[in-house]
Structure formats: C-alpha cells, structure tokens
C-alpha cells in the first residue's frame, strides 16, 4: 500500500531534486493511489496553477490504464481514437505524455502512480523514476 509518509517522501524528493538543479523550470508532483485518489501533491513557487491538474492527469491515466503516460503517448500515435475514448471515460483527466510513472511494490503489484510536470516530459519522467526508487519501490515507465 502506498501511504501518506511514502507519498510525501516521493513528492519531497522530486521538489528538492528540482530545487538543486539549475536546468529545470518550476516543477509540480502528484502521487495517487491505485484507485486514482490523490495522496500528496506539491507545486514549486513559479509553477503555473494548471500544473497540478497536468501532473494528476499523467498519473491518473497511468494508473487507470495500467501503463505509463509515456506508453499512453506511444499508443496515442497509433490508436488516437482509443486514447480519445479513454480520455472521455476518464472525464478528460488522461494526459498521454511522459511524466506519469506507475509505482509497483516488490511483488510487482501496481500500488499507485506519480505524475510530474513543469519541464520537458523526459525530465519530468526522470524525476518521477528517481523519487520512486528513492523510497525502495519500483517505477514502471
């Protein structure tokens, strides 16, 4: 189970990592559980308000469809109608670009997802992966 303490550790890792790098714009991070409910969220000073929804959308799409937001983006390129239909079912909260990473436990069960946004998507995803690994869980990007 992904609890508040672990979710806060993940979010704090992302924000502190971003603060220690000069190559990143202000970041936003959201951690959700396996049912899609937000456990923890932070937005750096200077990050636009919509970034919380973007980060949640990356994580939400990943957990609802069981694949990272990067893989959702790849699928959108070949099956745009499918992703459009899934986004409608998710009430518009599916963002199919890198930065939404599934969180798996040591048994390989999905226990939630992390969504990160603020810079280019590859950097968003990089921060999410490092933060998940920092708490001893397994990222699935």
Shape: globular
Radius of gyration over all CA atoms, rounded: 14 Å
Main sheet overview? 5 strands, antiparallel
What proportion strand? 15-25%
Residue runs with pLDDT of under 50 for 5 or more positions? none
Helix/strand structural class: alpha+beta
Helix content: 40-55%
Strand order of the largest sheet: 2-1-4-3-5
Task: Kindly report how far apart the N and C termini lie.
Answer: 19 Å
Tally of individual helices: 5
Number of DSSP E strands? 5
Average of per-residue pLDDT values: 96
Element order: H for helix, E for strand: HEEHHHEEHE
Describe the structure.
It is a single chain. The protein is an alpha+beta fold and 141 residues long. It has five helices and five strands. The chain has helices at 4-19, 51-65, 69-78, 80-89, 121-134; strands at 28-33, 38-43, 100-104, 110-117, 138-140. It has a five-stranded antiparallel beta sheet with strand order 2-1-4-3-5. A hairpin with a 5-residue loop joins strand 3 (100-104) and strand 4 (110-117). The longest helix is centred in the first third of the chain and has 16 residues, at 4-19. It starts with a helix and ends with a strand. The relative contact order is 0.22.
């Amino acid at each position: 189970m992904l609890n508040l303490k672990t979710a806060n550790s993940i979010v704090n890792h992302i924000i502190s990592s971003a603060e220690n790098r000069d190559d990143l714009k202000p970041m936003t991070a959201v951690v959700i559980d396996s049912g899609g409910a937000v456990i923890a969220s932070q937005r750096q000073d200077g990050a636009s308000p919509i970034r919380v929804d973007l980060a949640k959308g990356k994580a939400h799409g990943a957990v609802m469809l069981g694949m990272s937001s990067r893989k959702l983006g790849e699928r959108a390129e070949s099956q745009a109608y499918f992703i459009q239909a899934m986004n409608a079912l998710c009430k518009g909260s599916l963002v199919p670009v890198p930065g939404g990473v599934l969180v798996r436990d040591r048994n390989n069960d999905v226990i939630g997802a992390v969504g990160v946004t603020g810079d280019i998507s590859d950097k968003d995803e990089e921060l999410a992966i490092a933060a998940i690994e920092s708490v001893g869980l397994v990222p699935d990007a």
